[in-house]
């Protein structure tokens, strides 16, 4: 093998190693920076509507940040929360709005869960007909009454989420507890394993050369 070919191969591997190492950080910084810039532009637009032109960058972001804090404090007051819930119930009468708003609200609720609530989701294994197993998460201890009525009476049924690799989506199945194998594995670690199809786990176990 010519020396030039070996040199090119080493440079290629080194370049890929550097790119893959810095890419997650670069994408994360870019995403958060884009959010900050968007919120700053939104706040500046609001200030311009009331006739005040900001003299420096970042004022719009601070305004939106303070408004979010005020909203959070307001929703801790029972009368305001009750009024908002009444308004929300009225808006939910519109079918299309109910579908879109419900999806966004569920995502917001999921993002609002702290680590302790996420780790309470039990990681389980479910056997397949070919003798293999798939990893899933019990998402709730209680089933909706409509589903319990439709399901066979025998068995303790629970919803289990089977996450799809490299995708946000997953498949929710209704499974008997007796058919599940409980695993002592945190939700965060198991989710990382499933989202990357085990690639992150394999990479972490590799010894540096």
UniProtKB/TrEMBL annotation:
List the protein's name: DUF502 domain-containing protein
Specify the domain of life of the species encoding this protein. Bacteria
So where does this one cross the membrane?
Answer: 20-39, 59-84
Q: Which PANTHER family match?
A: COV-LIKE PROTEIN 1 (PTHR31876), PROTEIN LIKE COV 2 (PTHR31876:SF26)
- Database matches in Pfam families: DUF502
Give UniProt keywords alphabetically: Membrane, Transmembrane, Transmembrane helix
Q: Which InterPro entries match?
A: COV1-like
């Amino acid at each position: 093998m010519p020396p030039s070919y070996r040199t090119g191969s080493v440079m290629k591997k080194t370049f890929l190693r550097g790119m893959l190492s810095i890419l997650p950080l670069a994408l994360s910084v870019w995403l958060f920076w884009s959010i900050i810039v968007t919120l700053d532009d939104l706040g500046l637009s609001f200030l311009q509507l009331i006739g005040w032109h900001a003299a420096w960058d970042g004022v719009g972001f601070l305004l939106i940040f303070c408004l979010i804090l005020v909203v959070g404090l307001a929703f801790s007051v029972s009368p305001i929360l009750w009024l908002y819930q009444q308004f929300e119930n009225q808006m939910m009468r519109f079918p299309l709005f109910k579908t879109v708003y419900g999806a966004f609200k569920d995502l917001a609720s999921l993002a609002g869960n702290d680590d302790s609530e996420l780790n309470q989701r039990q990681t389980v294994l479910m056997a397949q007909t070919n003798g293999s197993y798939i990893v899933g998460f019990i998402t709730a201890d209680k089933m909706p009454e409509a589903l319990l009525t439709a399901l066979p009476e025998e068995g303790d049924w629970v919803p289990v989420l089977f996450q799809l690799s490299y995708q946000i989506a997953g498949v929710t199945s209704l499974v008997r507890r007796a058919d599940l194998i409980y695993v002592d594995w945190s939700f965060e670690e198991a989710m990382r394993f499933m989202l990357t199809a085990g690639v992150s786990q394999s990479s972490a176990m590799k010894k540096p050369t």
